[in-house]
Structures are given as C-alpha cells and as structure tokens.
Amino acid sequence: MADRTLTGFLLVGGASRRFGAPKALARLGDETLAERVWRTLGECCGERIAVGKKGDALDLPFPIVDDGTDVRAPLAGVVGGLRLARSGVCIFCPVDTPLVTAEALRALAAACADAAVPQTGPLPGAYGKSTLPVLERRLAEGRLTLKDALDELDTHVVELDPAELVNVNTLADLQALRR
HEC string of 31-98? Predict the structure, then answer.
C-alpha cells in the first residue's frame, strides 16, 4: 500500500552512454524500464514524479519534470526532485534498477535520517528534504558524485537483497535479465 507521506522520484535524465539508447525506453517484458520502476514507486509512494531532461523528449506515459540543469548526474536529479518535494522523506530510484521492490524502497524510507542507501551505493535511496542545502552546494561546486555527498550526511546503510539491486548499464545487462 502506498504511503501518502512519501514522494517517489523516478530519475530518467541519464546519458545512457554505455547502453547506446535511452534506458528509460528499453523493454523488460511488457513494460519499459521507466514504466516498471514508475509502477513500483506507485506501490509505496503517495506521490510520484519523474525527473530528467525535458529536452530528451522521452515518449513515456507520464510527464517528466526538468531537473533545471544541463548537468547529467544523479545528483542533479536528486536536487531537482528535492526542490519539488512536499514530503520530508523522498525515495529516488533510477530507471536502470528495474528489479527493486516496493518493500525495499519502504525499508530505505523507514531508515532515513538524512539519507538511507543500500549496501551497493547511493541509488536507489531515501533522502530527506533537509539534505537539499548540502546537495545544492555540491551541485553548484561541480562536485557531482552523490556517493561522496553521503559523507556529509547522516546516512544509514540498509542491507537489501542484491538481486533486487541489479543495475542495467549495457544491453548485455538487459539481455541477462530477460533470460
């Protein structure tokens, strides 16, 4: 059941260099990667917003809010999302983690102080709106690595099932999931 106090953000602004085409539009079963993660966010979050680059003109069945920067980095999407957030705790999930479950995202939200992340890194993750000043400063300074920003935050690591955290970076990764 969706928690009305959580906002879920789907990050769709990646360059997809290694993948060779927009990952958001790649299909796994009868859904695109973006649709799949969007559905999962809807299972746990009362509000969902897709954040990316409007200029990419991705043909998705939901609107994309521009993150307001030319920078292509997860940090830009998180900052753009937090600026829009009405919730104190927000879930951020990139399109390239199509196996993550609503239960895993709920666990991240429950553990969030400033941030809660899985053992594999900063995304998917839960970030408090309170982290916005730190993340905005890092974005303005060009310090774009979200993982490094965690050192400045009260971050909890949540052990999640590694199978749910599979990241689709290449066509070979997607083919492996299809098998």
Answer: EEHHHHHHHHHHHHEEEEEEEECHHHCCCCCCCEEECCCCCCCHHHHHHHHHHHCCCCEEEEEECCCC
Q: Which domain holds residue 174?
A: 3-178
- Which pLDDT tens digit goes with each residue over 147-171? 999 999 999 999 999 999 999 988 8
> pTM for the complete prediction?
0.95
CATH of the domain at 169: 3.90.550.10
pLDDT digits (tens, 9 = 90+) for 88-146: 999 999 999 999 999 999 999 999 999 999 999 999 999 999 999 999 999 999 999 99
Q: How many domains does the chain have?
A: 1
Distance CA 118, CA 125 (A): 7
Q: Cβ(112)–Cβ(89) under 8 Å?
A: yes
